[in-house]
Specification:
Length: about 100
Amino acid sequence: MSKSLTKKVRHELDDTLEDVAKTLRKAADALSENSEEAVEEAAKALRHAAQVLADRTPPEVRDLARKAMDEAKAHPIATSAAVLSAAGALITVLGLGRRKTA
């Protein structure tokens, strides 16, 4: 994959993840009030972001994602550990962000 394509995909992914993080942060703030609605809104935003990202993804990136998916299927335990680590990191970042704004 070319450097310019990689930068473009990374930039779009960063924007998409930022939108998802904002929605998740908003959902976390509202959890005490209407948790079901907040979680539903966050899930919808995540699904929409995934669709937008998929629509904008060039064929080269799709091939790379397919290879990553095949690798994840071949090594499910390692993949699960990586996903849990990433989720933990995201939760920590969101928690630190909430403390700074409080």
